[in-house]
Amino acid sequence: MSDTEAYTDPRIIKTHRAIREAFVDLLHEKPFAQIAVQDILERAPVNRSTFYKYYSGKSDLAGKMIADFKAEYSQVLLTRFHVGSFDVFLSVMPEASEWIHSRRRLILALWKVDTRRHHLYRDMHGLIKQQFLRFVHTLPGADPNKDWDYQADMLSTMILGSMNYFFSRDLPLKLPEIRKAWTEMSELLLP
């Protein structure tokens, strides 16, 4: 079977979806280290040979899910940070926040997979930071010789912290409100 057939055959798509949804459900119930392949099989339900036809184990499953999400997320970031001005950047962010919000359950689950090989939270932090550093150097008036590493790191931390806060409470990301809260915090700390 070719890769193209694997991604278009409805039975295979249904099997992957069942396995992945079972894994996400389990991650919301217990730590990654406590999940066994048998737990996934029972929840999916799929048989062992079907699971191992596509994944070598739970770590491989987590890795593929993280890679798939990161590929999508990278595209969203690239699109949003490649707009030429900060005002335009802010105007397109609601679309990105809706996309992110629609995947909140997946994100919260995959953030719980934090191993030597798999660490979506840290990967997302790095992706945001990298895209911001590229973006800031395209802004008119931005000092091209300035080291923006600290600002990029703080922005990444604030974005992911906000996502975690709102997603874990099942609240939508409302960018104007978040931006206002960040401004209020800055004004309190730096009058």
| Shape annotation | elongated
Summarize model confidence as the mean pLDDT.
86
Low-confidence spans: pLDDT under 50, at least 5 residues?
1-5, 85-89
Q: What proportion strand?
A: under 5%
The helicity comes to over 70%
Question: How large is the radius of gyration?
Answer: 19 Å
The tally of strands reads 0
Total of helices: 10
Question: Main sheet?
Answer: none
Q: Topology as H/E string?
A: HHHHHHHHHH
Backbone structural class: mainly alpha
**Span of the ends, CA to CA:** 64 Å
Please tell me about this protein's structure.
- The protein is mainly alpha-helical and 191 residues long.
- The chain is 74% helix and 0% strand.
- Helix 2 (10-29) packs across helix 7.
- The longest helix is centred in the middle third of the chain and has 24 residues, at 58-81.
- The chain is elongated, with a radius of gyration of 19 Å.
Task: Summarize, please.
It contains ten helices and no strands. The chain has helices at residues 3-8, 10-29, 37-43, 48-54, 58-81, 86-102, 104-111, 120-136, 149-168, 175-189.
